[in-house]
UniProtKB/TrEMBL annotation:
Domain GIY-YIG intervals: 1-71
Organism of provenance: Neisseria meningitidis (strain alpha14)
Top-rank taxon, per record: Bacteria
UniProt key word Nuclease: yes
Pfam families given in the database record: GIY-YIG (PF01541)
Molecular-function annotations in GO: endonuclease activity
Record protein name field: Putative endonuclease
Length: 79
């Protein structure tokens, strides 16, 4: 998720993507990272068969350089 082009990026995992996006857009967790930085746009997602795989990918991507994340987003979601 992001708060606009060239803005803050957020990486997370969930078992219910539509609900989680709604929570971010509506600042359900007012003390959370996404509320603090107004992160509300879903810019990329990947489906996994199980949570351990998703968490492993999340941890890997959180270590990536910002440029790598932006490249992935732009390649798979050019809008």
């Amino acid at each position: 998720m992001a708060n606009g082009k060239n803005g803050t990026l957020y990486i997370g995992v969930t078992m219910n993507l539509p609900e989680r996006v709604w929570q971010h857009k509506n600042h359900v967790n007012i003390d959370g990272f996404t509320a603090r930085y107004d992160v509300h746009d879903l810019v990329w997602y990947q489906f996994f068969e199980n949570m351990p795989e998703a968490v492993a990918k999340e941890k890997t991507m959180k270590k990536w350089r910002r440029e790598w994340k932006i490249k992935l987003i732009e390649e798979q979601n050019p809008e």
